[in-house]
Design goal:
Shape: elongated
Number of helices: 12
Radius of gyration: 24 Å
Distance between the termini: 38 Å
Helix content: 40-55%
Number of strands: 3
Length: 338
């Protein structure tokens, strides 16, 4: 997965100059304008989400300040030496900014590499000085998944016959059944769901992922039943308290539920189910992928269901299932250990 952005303050997400807020003495107009061209390309032609665009903006603002301090006033002045020096500065803070961890530094280097590739293609520079500069590598971190039994206990603990209880069960069943990101789930409208007739196969859900990319995902029978119960007996009561919204999952005031509220719902259900492990809405997404692969699903099918742009991102889940195979083998085979 792409590492998270650095922890500097986030400027506004509009197409303002990338180095907004940087003192004029520490800025280069030519480099600022060329960076702004790249950000506009990412927003308009690549369709990056506002939060992702804001992360690129602050990462490149720091790069612009570094280049200004190094005496670079034009994009064509930048050499590989400048780029590698910036990579070192990200790790030790020698440019005056915060020292970043491996993942955050790698995220920033990705932004810089993309910038230089764009500049070279657009003719801002005669060559790409960052083409051979690679992001620092973090140790491979396995996704946190919980067992099928633990998921079942959480889902059953969430169910009550009240409007909010029906919503809670439907939300958690939905997250595990579809592998949706929490932002995708809370952003759904009622019209994004097509519940199938009995015996007609899985229901279909339309999800909108990163960069507003749309995908269709099946909804299993358990999730469909929980969602149907909520739509019939729960949502109308919650909607009556609001001003009218197409949102699928509603809060107690009849408005769209927030990601923070969804996290609280899951935490309460986990505590009620006596799950001592730390769980979050993303835990259900990780568990969805892991359990599919353990059940024999093809990794490229799981990639499509998760909405990953690259199968490489999905393949990290195969490490989880490989570890499970080793544990089972070690416990069951008579000559596995000795």
């Amino acid at each position: 997965m792409v590492p998270g952005p650095s922890a500097e303050p986030v400027p506004s997400a509009g197409p303002a100059p990338v180095a907004a807020g940087v003192p004029a003495a520490g800025r280069s107009g030519a480099i600022d304008r060329a960076i702004t061209d790249y950000l506009q390309h990412l927003g308009v032609e690549r369709g990056l989400a506002a939060n992702t665009l804001a992360a690129y903006r602050r990462d490149l603002a720091r790069y612009a300040r570094y280049l200004a301090a190094a005496g670079c006033s034009r994009p064509e002045d930048i050499t590989r030496h400048h780029v590698t020096g910036y990579v070192r500065a990200l790790s030790d803070g020698s440019d005056g900014g915060s020292a970043l961890g491996v993942r955050s530094a790698a995220r920033t280097v990705v932004a810089v590499r993309g910038l230089h590739k764009f500049w070279a293609l657009e003719g801002h520079t005669p060559a790409d000085p960052a083409s051979e500069v690679h992001p620092p590598m973090a140790g491979k971190r396995l996704p946190k998944a919980i067992s099928v039994d633990e998921v079942t206990r959480i889902l059953e603990a969430a169910g009550t016959d009240t409007a909010t209880g029906l919503r809670d069960r439907a939300l958690l069943e939905f997250l595990y059944s579809t592998g949706a990101r929490i932002s995708e789930a809370v952003g759904l409208d009622v019209d994004d769901i097509t519940l199938a007739e009995p015996g007609a196969g899985p229901a279909i859900v339309r999800l909108f992922g990163k960069g507003s990319k749309e995908r269709l995902v099946p909804l299993g029978s358990y999730g469909a039943r929980a969602l149907d119960a909520y739509l019939v007996r729960g949502r109308p009561l919650l909607a009556a308290k609001g001003k009218g919204t197409p949102a699928l999952f509603l809060n107690a005031r009849g408005g769209r539920i927030s990601r923070q509220s969804a996290w609280t719902i899951l935490k309460a259900a986990a505590e009620k189910a006596n799950i001592t492990r730390d769980v979050s809405p993303h835990t259900l997404r990780h568990s969805f992928a892991t359990h599919l692969l353990e059940g024999g699903a093809d990794v490229r099918v799981v990639q499509e269901l998760l909405g990953h742009a690259s199968v490489t991102t999905t393949q990290v889940y195969t490490l989880v299932t490989a570890d499970t195979l080793r544990e089972v083998y070690a416990a069951a085979h008579p000559r596995a250990l000795g």
